[in-house]
Write a structure and sequence with these properties.
It is built from twelve helices and 15 strands. The strands form two sheets. The chain has an eleven-stranded mixed β-sheet, with helices on both faces. Helix 1 crosses helix 6 and helix 11 packs parallel to helix 12. The longest helix is centred in the last third of the chain and has 18 residues. The mean pLDDT is 93.
Amino acid sequence: MDTKIYQLNQIDEAAAAIKRGELVSFPTETVYGLGADATNETAVKNVYLAKGRPSDNPLIVHVNSVSMVEKYAAEIPDNARKLMKAFWPGSLTIILNIKPGVLSKTVTGGLSTVAFRFPDCQPTLDLIAKAGVPMVGPSANTSGKPSPTTAQHVYHDLNGKIAGILDNGPSRVGVESTVIDMSTDTPVILRPGAVTKHDIEGVIGSIDLNHHKVGKNETPKAPGMKYKHYAPSSQVYIVDEGTDWKQVVKWIEAQPFDVGIMAETKILQSLSMPTNAVQFSLGDGVADASARLFDGLREFDDEHNVKAIMSQAFPAVDLGGAYMNRLNKSAGGMHFSLDQKN
């Protein structure tokens, strides 16, 4: 099967594929998702197979209305409704308790909760409406690899494994949605994203940040909590704030292989690069960097034979918290140092 690229005037065709139980990648403002009918257990199982995703990693269910959530949620607490009003459609995923038996354990990972998201992307909202069902939608990539922010990224990973990809150009935000658990007494952010703790507290008051490390035999309540994520083939190193980039370049020059370097344009332009340095601009500021991070990691993975990647850190506040969360996972917590061995 050759995977089809659906254009925006072919949403009816993409929706028909979803109705048939096939898999279609869809765009969002964050990253591209891998869509299947959330009520079709066979289709959902095929999502795990296409991605090579662990079966205890629950899936986010994408909707196009609060009324669609009401069909499945046991209840929607007042504070959850306030968040929906403030941030939906948008980059916020809300975990709720669900009615018994309304969605299969394949969707929930065996839990009694489900994560719901109302994406800020009209083509995908139209796709859900035309398909007439909520869609599961993990990132449309091979499990563990950098998330896809273009249709071409999806095609690279999943061509021949899924029916099609709805192309809406590059994603605007570039890092996955914030996930907040509203099924517990105290709301807690399980994954940071573009909707920040400060944003949320401005609507519902004090909340917690997750500090729980998921155990080997424990099912995570949200994606990205347990397994290695966002990692290219080459080792990524975080270049901390305050590091002298000239020393980074000096280290690169001493290596017998090509090294990727990801930093703001102004940093790249200030340096005299050796011939074995392969540059990727993160743009100007953390918003640009967040939108470009996965694209850069994928470019080094797919197009350049680099053996290491040096990537700029940003202050871990607001959107920078989401950026650093993804970068830390990509790097496996590895930071650049002058005496490191690759």
